[in-house]
Amino acid sequence: MTLTPEVLTGQTRSHLTDVDGCLMHRDVMGDFLNLKAAAKSAGFELAVASSFRDFERQQLIWNLKFEGQRAVLDDNGQALDISTFTDREKILAILRWSALPGGSRHHWGTDLDIYAKNLLPEGVSLQLEPWEYTQGHQTPFADWLTDNLTAFGFYRPYQKDLGGVAVEPWHISHRETAQQYLTALTPALLSTVIASSAVAGREAVLAELNWIYSQYITNVSEA
Ligand SMILES: [Zn+2]
User: Could you give the number of structural domains in the chain?
Assistant: First the structure.
């Protein structure tokens, strides 16, 4: 597979395949299905909350947050008043929970947000908040994942707070495939993509790109 700018930044679906209604990378499907089967044997109905997300979608999320039309949350899950923030401060706040368009691991199809459907209490919807996985209904599943992910080629890039993206216990990554993408995604490539996009705060993003890249894209836990 040639890792073109389009493949790296969510602007094509050529590298993807449909697995039970979820788009993911072709090279991830086998390990994913094995992980799902093992989870089932252990009593968990593994479900995908988010798989591939394209550039347009990530740009929409980003722009709504940047323009104050969608909540930007602090570390405690409380909405921030960003109306007085500088562009740089807005970018920093958004990046804690949302990736830069073009810089999301969900563009690659190698990364998935998962949960156990059968652990979700009736009438409760998944929030994708850390407490659900650390001290809530998803905790038994999260613990099982910790013990079993590696055997299926997956790991959690956001398992620790490294000062970049917040801890996301639900986010798993197919290590071998994702590593190739991370290596190929350079600041120069990202810069070209952002420069020709409609990303809100584009000029400030471009000015801060090297820092964003090292703090939020390559700054992930090792497998
Ligand atoms: Zn995710």
Answer: 1
